[in-house]
């Protein structure tokens, strides 16, 4: 039995951030729209995002906040549907929000507010949405596409792939979008988990056994990436915004360097402390920077004995400062797609129009959102890419 309309203008596969946004924009232009998703409900990643409060955009979004083999690709869509456009939509729906830090905008209440916004926009656009629908095949027709699903067969003029990346398979993530791209001869830029915690080797974890839960501001650097944010020790390794951000630059076997006191030169600071408080113990002075646990760990780990500052010579203090300032680490690995917020890589943007998201070689076939080789930093940028790329396609499908 065919439970779906047999013919539709726009068929969107994936009822996540990008798919729902595209449905609303296309529907409001008068196109008949159907959105299909295999999950039991729509927008699951939105619901779990931002610790349940959805960091829905970033006030400082610019193309520099995105990784892609073609860093210019994202510019057009981001310029034509900006963070301010999405903020205006949030305000139109009366959703209370706040800036947490670094331009990151979060819902005051729940992420569900954003899903409700998208569903209200889809209703206004008369877009139909079906969940629990598996896609069996996609075939090109003379004009448009024929899609066979577990709920029946649909013909569409425009087919939009909005199935996201590989992160968090338990939330419904699949490689479907990449398979469709390959079917049509498109290249996939190799994918890897990003915005993901690091795991550490057993021996290192034993040395850090008192630290899980401890956090400190650091500058984490790897390759060309350098991020000044919090780092968190966990039972399996390292997490926190600085670590998640730098993970997008990390390749297996590479070292990551952490400046543990990014706001000061520790050698100079210790010399100054010695002048001001010559009788104070090194560990007491360091407790002005880090928690007791961290100070104890850093001193023990680097084999530094705590004494009153006046007992250290200037070269000794300079050496201690340098030792404590930097920590170099080769992570054992990452937590992988199981917990990664995003997937780096994806459908090669060379084959896609940056203005419309349409495939250059297959008219009527569109790719939007995370399935493309466009990946944002941590901080609301990935949702902004979903909104902007979806809007670009929604205006033309
Ligand atoms: P998205 O993944 O949202 O949607 C894809 C949809 O396609 C899903 O509904 C899925 O079920 C469906 N689908 C997949 N395969 C299918 C198939 N074979 N058949 C049918 N349907 C299929 N970003 C941000 O900017 N701010 C934040 O606060 C966070 N927080 C966050 C937390 C966590 C835990 C994660 C995992 C991710 C984030 N992100 C984030 C990233 C953000 O969630 C992500 O980049 C966007 O949801 C991508 O939107 P898309 O619509 O492209 O994919």
TrEMBL record:
Domain RsdA/BaiN/AoA(So)-like insert: 192-342
Keywords from the UniProt entry: FAD, Flavoprotein
Top-rank lineage group of the source organism: Bacteria
Keyword Acyltransferase: no
Keyword Flavoprotein among UniProt keywords: yes
Cofactor(s) demanded: FAD
Domain RsdA/BaiN/AoA(So)-like Rossmann fold-like: 9-395
Pfam families: HI0933_like (PF03486), HI0933_like_1st (PF22780)
Protein's UniProt name: NAD(P)/FAD-dependent oxidoreductase
Organism: Microbulbifer flavimaris
């Amino acid at each position: 039995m065919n439970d779906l309309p047999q013919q539709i203008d726009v068929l969107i596969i994936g009822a996540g951030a990008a798919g729902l946004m595209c449905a609303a924009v296309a529907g409001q232009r008068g196109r008949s729209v159907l959105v299909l998703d295999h999950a039991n409900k729509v927008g699951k990643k939105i619901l779990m995002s931002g610790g349940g409060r959805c960091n829905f955009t970033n006030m400082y979004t610019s193309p520099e906040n995105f990784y892609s083999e073609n860093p210019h690709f994202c510019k057009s869509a981001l310029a034509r549907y900006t963070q301010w456009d999405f903020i205006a939509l949030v305000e139109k729906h009366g959703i209370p929000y706040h800036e947490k830090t670094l331009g990151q905008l979060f819902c005051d209440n729940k992420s569900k507010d954003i899903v409700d916004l998208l569903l209200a926009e889809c209703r206004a656009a008369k877009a139909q949405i079906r969940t629990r629908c598996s896609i069996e095949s996609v075939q090109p027709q003379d004009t448009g596409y024929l899609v066979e699903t577990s709920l029946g067969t649909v013909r569409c003029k425009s087919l939009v792939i909005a199935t996201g990346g590989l992160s968090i398979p338990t939330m419904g993530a699949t490689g479907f979008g990449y398979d469709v791209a390959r079917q049509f001869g498109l290249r996939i830029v190799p994918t890897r988990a990003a915005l993901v915690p690091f795991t550490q080797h057993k021996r290192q974890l034993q040395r850090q056994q008192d630290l899980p839960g401890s956090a400190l501001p650091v500058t984490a650097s790897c390759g060309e990436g350098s991020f000044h944010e919090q780092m968190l020790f966990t039972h399996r390794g390292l997490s926190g915004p600085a670590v998640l951000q730098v993970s997008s630059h990390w390749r297996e076997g590479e070292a990551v360097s952490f400046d543990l006191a990014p706001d000061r030169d520790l050698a100079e600071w210790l010399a100054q402390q010695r002048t001001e408080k010559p009788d104070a113990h090194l560990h007491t002075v360091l407790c002005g920077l880090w928690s007791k646990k961290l100070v104890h760990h850093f001193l023990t780990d680097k084999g530094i004995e705590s004494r009153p500052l006046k007992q250290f010579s200037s070269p000794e203090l300079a050496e201690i400062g340098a030792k404590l300032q930097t920590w170099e680490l080769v992570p054992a690995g990452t937590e992988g797609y199981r917990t990664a917020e995003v997937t780096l890589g994806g459908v090669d943007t060379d084959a896609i129009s940056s203005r419309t998201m349409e495939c250059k070689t297959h008219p009527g076939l569109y790719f939007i959102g995370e399935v493309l080789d466009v990946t944002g930093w941590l901080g609301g940028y990935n949702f902004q890419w979903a909104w902007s790329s979806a809007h670009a396609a929604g205006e033309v499908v």
